Each structure stands twice: as C-alpha cells, then as structure tokens.
Amino acid sequence: MAISPPRNRLWWNEPIERVEVGWIVVAFLWGLFMFVFMIAWHFIGGQNLSTETYRVTPAAYEEKVTAFAEKYQVGEEAGGVPVVRPPAGEDVYLLARLWEWWPVLELKKGQSYRIHLSSLDWQHGFSLQPVNINISIHPGYEQIITLTPTQAGDFGIACNEYCGIGHHLMTGRIRVVE
Ligand code: CUA
Fold it and tell me: The pTM is what?
C-alpha cells in the first residue's frame, strides 16, 4: 500500500532482480516435484490413504449411521452425542455435518475396523489428531478406510476444510481403549 504516490509511476515495470528469478525457478521446480509425488506417495511412505469409495445419498447414509449408533451405543457425551462401541472387526460409521462429527467412537487397540465416512451436507475435512490422517469428506460419496489403532487414548477429529461459520467448532473424537 502506498500512502504517498510512488516516485516512479511505472514501479511495476522494472527488471526483476536476479535473486528473485532464482526463487521463482526454485518454487516452480519444487511445485513440479510435488505434483509428480502426489502419485509416488501412494506407493512409498504411509501418507496417502487409498480408500474404497461408493455412491450414497445423504439420506441413506444418515440411516446407516443412525442404525449403527443405536445398535452399539454405550453412553452419551455432554450435548447428547452418543458414544458408540462397535465389536472388533465391525463396520464403523461416522458422519460429518454442519458442524459436528457424529457419533463418538470407542475402538479397541490392536483391532482392525472398516471406518465409513461421508457428509450429509457439504464438503468437510477429516483430520485425525495427533496422527496425521487427512481425508476430504464429500456428500454423495461413502469412503471406507481400514484403521487399526496402535495406541490407546483420545484422538481428536478436526474439520480441515472450511465449511462456514461453525467450521472451527466442528470437532469429534475417537477413543481407543486397551
Ligand atoms: Cu466442516 Cu469445516
């Protein structure tokens, strides 16, 4: 921002400094490298999760999650969110909506679960903390990841796709018990 007009009116038309050209080249090459590695990271490292994905309507998904929560509910959090403890190896359902993750899951350490994820309204981001698992959650698509907790404790879920006025309040929880 210029408080007083610039002395040189064509201030934007000066030659670029060599060092700036250097940084532009570095940034461009790094961008290309990262672009290629989007594919490579499916094969090396544990960063990109490969998910199964199916079409589902939000209404049909909500029905599945509600039935799942009713079947395995063991308690209730403040605010009336059910705590659900599915048997080991079971299909587990979690939904995203404005602005919550529902329900709270209780899983057993060392057991594998198929975690189903979908949104009832618009795009949300499933970010499991403090482990670095990130998945974009879309309405109309049911994604399934296989998850085997290796540590007991409380894991937070934060929404990491901006989804409106309550985005920063959109948190959930997965509890892992021994
Ligand atoms: Cu949901 Cu941000």
Answer: 0.75
